[in-house]
Design goal:
With 222 residues, the protein is an alpha+beta fold. Helix content is 32%, strand content 31%. It has eight helices and nine strands. The longest helix has 12 residues.
Length: 222
């Protein structure tokens, strides 16, 4: 049985339609697109050839396929600075046989052991505190991230648990990092922008099993 993954692709907002159309052409039936904002510093933007920080964040579910990732890297020019980054995150299950049949229409590849070289950090923070989160992450070696706006539910229960007032308006910050830097970056975020600060951030990480579009950035950080 093939492994199922969540494919997350981040690109400039004006390229989001092109990327979504490509995924649909590959037989992936459902592609969700959110509008986001980049957090990269001016130096990183210049290095990657980016002029704007407005982003499109695309998510879709498919059987894991190295072929699909490599084809995306080729067709979407992900090796070119400014085009974007693609990552896949393994899923443990999909609820309902009908939903699974709908989402997994294409054949994947046999499940295989994969060395995790990168992880995706997801930070949930109060609106307006993304800079605080990113300053903390950069102090431990992160290069940049992308954030989208969100609205929290169950705030009252969270307030009782943490013993502090929590804002409903939140932001999700996506930070792709090398696996060996994950612990230090998470610690920096928790220390400098955690629940005891005005940012009230919660951070968790997900393993990334496939990646495309980070070659130049990885070379810079080595």
């Amino acid at each position: 049985m093939s492994e199922t993954v969540l494919i997350i692709t981040i690109t400039d907002r004006n390229q989001g339609g092109e990327f979504a159309a490509w995924y649909q052409a590959q037989g992936i039936p459902l592609v969700l697109t959110s509008l986001g904002h980049g957090t990269a510093t001016t130096e990183v933007l210049d290095y990657l050839g980016l002029e704007a920080t407005e982003k499109a964040v695309l998510m879709c579910i498919a059987p894991r396929s190295t072929r699909l990732v490599r084809q995306a890297e080729k067709d979407l020019w992900l090796d070119v600075p400014g085009r974007g980054v693609l990552m896949t995150v393994p899923l443990s299950s999909i609820g309902g046989s009908a939903a699974k049949e709908y989402l997994l229409r294409q054949e994947g590849e046999p499940s295989m052991e994969t060395k995790v070289t990168h992880e995706l950090l997801i930070v949930i923070t109060n609106q307006g505190h993304t800079d605080q989160v990113m300053d903390a992450a950069r102090s431990a070696g992160a290069t940049g991230g992308t954030y989208i706006h969100a609205k929290g539910t169950g705030v009252e229960a969270a307030q009782k648990f943490f013993g502090v007032s929590i804002a409903e308006e939140r932001e999700l910050v996506f930070i792709l990092v090398k696996a060996e830097k994950r612990r230090d970056i998470m610690k920096a975020v928790m220390t400098q922008a955690g629940m005891q600060t005005a940012a009230q951030s919660v951070v968790f990480s997900l393993p990334v099993c496939d990646i495309a579009g980070l070659r130049r950035l990885d070379e810079e950080s080595d």
